[in-house]
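Here is this case:
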Amino acid sequence: MTKSSSFPPVYDHEFQQASEHLRRTLPFVNQFKTPVNPVNYAVWYEYVSGDNEALTTAIDNRLSKNQPITNEITQTFYEKYVLMGMPDRIDKTNTGLKLVVDNTLENINRVETQASHCTSGLTQSQSQIENCHDAQELKNLVSEILLNTQQLTSSSSELKTELMRSTEEIVKLREELEAVKHSARSDGLTGLLNRGTFNRELQSLCHQEDRVFSLALFDLDNFKRLNDTFGHVLGDRVLQFFASLMNDHRDDIHLAARFGGEEMAMIFLHKNLEESFVIAESIREKFAESRLKKKGSNESIGQVTVSVGVSSYQPQDTPLTLLERADKALYKSKDDGRNRVNFL
């Protein structure tokens, strides 16, 4: 199992695999003389693991040009490819929201001051009117009242305009916050939930009593051979197509996630084992019947299939035990010849 992009990052490598990544990471740290701190280690760890394609491409580009990879470069790569730029986006949104609030309060205070001045002037005019017996003096008072009224109207109009502008800014910031929230929950390639969000959802479900749900793990068959034959761009299109099939079958009720690499997962809410098997089988059949073509060509890439393992939640299950059963069912599908669904 591999790691798919998520924020915060999620790693599920077994001890032996993680130890091997450590062994391969240290030569790069030594080669470029970067301190062994959490940031640098995370960058090189993800590079040698091969799970973070965007980071791998960025580092390979620099290596191919013999460009140095300094502490500053690894810091940039860490923020961009490991944290996916999330802290910067959140910081910009917070700053923008603070500016909107500060500007709104400033405008309200300014209008409040003007209104107070105008109110004081009108109160004074009211007092003068009671003792006024001269036409010219009365005319002057009327002019002052009109001026104060116009100032109040102008201030009110300016405040209305500024509040409308602030409202527009707040809407934009809310949309950006929604985008940040979506990015933190979703896999960048497929649009499905990412591994971190999937783990949290499964953990929450396993802690709820009397829950009925099932878990399916999908693994695209011979995906490495497909990538080697047709390239990673077409491989990505295959993953996106399969994700679209999962979305077609989840009915806005079930949860679909990219589990890692070419592995996907679905949580079927309110479905028992037999009902979940039917849905998983339908996805498998639709995928096996598809005939994807090369981009810009009518040439088919042939049949692409998926193997599936399904397991239903049992009392006392933990996320790990449920995943292990589904994983065993998946490997049984692989052992039985692939392109099939098994359940345990």
Summary: The mean pLDDT is 80.
